[in-house]
Design brief:
Elements (H helix, E strand, L loop, with lengths): L1 E2 L5 E4 L2 E4 L6 E3 L4 E2 H19 L5 E4 L14 E3 L11 E6 L4 E6 L3 H9 L2 E6 L15 E8 L5 H17 L5 E4 L5 E6 L6 H18 L4 E2 L11 E4 L9 E2 L11 E2 L1 E2 L12 E2 H10 L5 H5 L13 H5 L22 E8 L3 E9 L2 E7 L11 E10 L7 E3 L7 E17 L2 E8 L8 E10 L2 E7 L3
Parallel strand pairs: 14-15
Antiparallel strand pairs: 1-2, 2-3, 4-5, 6-7, 6-10, 8-9, 10-16, 11-13, 11-15, 12-13, 12-18, 17-19, 20-21, 20-25, 21-22, 22-23, 23-28, 24-25, 25-26, 26-27, 27-28
The protein binds manganese (II) ion.
């Protein structure tokens, strides 16, 4: 964030933003100012943005600060984007039964700075995303809100979270816990986007009821308050398409400036506490986002709105890896290049990347490309890579994401026959000795979550 000529105008991600009252205290207990809030949102942007990409954002605003435990500040929910908002913030109109709302979608750090400017401390998002045309898609995340009732706290939520992890794991879902910063724990799992919100909400209710019958002394699945003393409410209803949940890495309007923080399962023990803004910034200097995989498993990974390299960037520190880490969102392109890189990471694989719409859409192939038409190989989709990655060779240091040696196995151009939803068909012309050995036609078929099959086809 750079100051420009006018004293109260700043430049963020190439956008100009007017800042007023940067010294205004929003969290009196810690003296945290509006400028501190904006600085937090700028620093956490690489982690936060992948989780809100393509999602409409409802804001919870405390324009005069959160106050104290004794005299809380006034707060209100804001859905419509006010006319005063900068024109460069993406707007999406969502039609409800009897009215329509125009919501913002936060694509870059500048939008987060604007949120700080208007004291929108909490950012709430649904579990579904819009495509680039603004059309709502099926949910790509599942969430359970574990809300501790009177007489319980985080330890009880941890016990319930662990049981839920097992139950959902048996159903093939990988979970990530988030300490909400308010009271309890949010438990997320990625979905493949094949079901609508009503279906997922009904499924979530069954999961909550199953937990209640497994842990009758600890869990309630009903909202009726009289039943809640000494128990954790497993609130399944936030999967409803019209509901939102506080976004991972959003601040909370709590007396201390706490944050909703994705945690590792190793942290899920009796010492678990909520974390504040400063603790989160310190923690993210030395670890990756425990929830990064959920941002990868988006329902429409090749059609995500906004900055398609946000996930790529969140996994890498340009100061620690020789890989290209561009600052800017990719420009659209219609090139048809490909690269296949041999990658000696913790397990050897070949990275298969096709240029598409300004990025390299990427898959990891544990066994490389199939050489015959008789045997398909597994292809695991990974985050989109920048076009500049196409010429990358080098050694990623141990301990960094994908640590190990990368060499180009083959590269060239491809002719596209089909790129639609679950199927891609392309004929690749390789240029490197020991690589594809000329023209080879492949089909990539999406099977489940991030899993695809790659099939060699006959060239007719
Ligand atoms: Mn790789």
């Amino acid at each position: 964030m750079a100051r420009s000529s006018a004293p109260d105008t700043v430049s963020v991600s190439g956008h100009r933003l007017r800042l007023t009252h940067p010294d205004k205290v929003l969290y009196p207990s810690t003296g945290t100012t509006k400028a501190d809030v904006i600085a937090y949102y700028q620093q956490i942007a690489p982690y936060l943005l992948p989780h809100v990409a393509g999602r409409i954002v409802t804001r919870k605003r405390w324009v005069d600060g959160v106050g104290t435990a004794r005299t809380p500040g006034d707060v209100f929910f804001e859905k419509n984007l006010p006319d005063s908002a900068p024109s460069w913030i993406r707007r999406v109109e969502i039609k409800h039964r009897d009215h329509a709302n125009t919501y913002p979608v936060f694509d870059d750090a500048a939008a987060l700075a604007w949120a700080g400017q208007v004291a929108a401390l909490e950012l709430h998002v649904p579990q579904w995303r819009v495509d680039r045309h603004g059309t709502p898609q099926h949910p790509d995340r599942f969430v359970l809100d574990l809300d501790p009732g009177p007489g319980t706290g985080l330890p009880e939520c941890v016990a319930v979270a662990k049981r839920a992890k097992k139950l959902l794991g048996d159903l093939g879902l990988t979970t990530c816990p988030v300490t909400s910063g308010s009271k309890g724990i949010h438990l997320y799992a990625p979905l493949d986007g094949s079901h609508d919100s009503d279906y997922i909400n009904a499924f979530a209710k069954q999961v909550a009821q199953a937990l209640e019958s497994e842990l009758p002394d600890l869990v309630v699945s009903s909202m009726r308050k009289s039943e809640r003393h000494g128990k954790v409410l497993v609130d399944w209803s936030q999967n409803n398409g019209s509901k939102t949940t506080v976004a991972p890495y959003s601040l909370r309007g709590t007396v201390e400036p706490r944050v909703a923080v994705p945690r590792t399962w190793r942290e899920m023990n009796d010492d678990l506490t909520h974390l504040t803004l400063d603790e989160v910034l310190a923690r993210m200097k030395r670890r990756k986002d425990p929830m990064a995989d959920l941002a990868d498993h988006a329902a429409e990974p090749a059609d995500g709105a906004g900055d398609r390299l946000a996930t790529y960037r969140s996994k890498r520190d340009g100061a620690k890896t020789p890989e290209p880490v561009p600052d800017d969102a990719p420009e659209p392109s219609d090139g048809r290049s490909f690269v296949i890189q041999e990658h000696h990471a913790s397990s050897l694989h070949w990275d298969f990347r096709l240029e598409h719409d300004g990025v390299l859409v990427s898959w990891a192939l544990p066994k490389g490309v199939p050489t015959t038409t008789a045997k398909n190989h597994l292809a695991v989709q990974t985050e989109d890579h920048p076009l500049s990655y196409g010429s990358f060779e080098g050694t990623i240091p141990k301990g960094e994401y994908g640590g190990g040696r990368v060499t180009i196995w083959d590269h060239g151009t491809y002719e596209l026959e089909k790129w639609k939803g679950r199927e891609i068909i392309a004929t690749l012309t390789g240029t490197k000795k020991g690589g594809l050995g000329g023209r080879r036609k492949y089909a990539l078929i999406h099977t489940n979550k991030n899993q695809w099959l790659i099939h060699r086809m006959k060239i007719t």
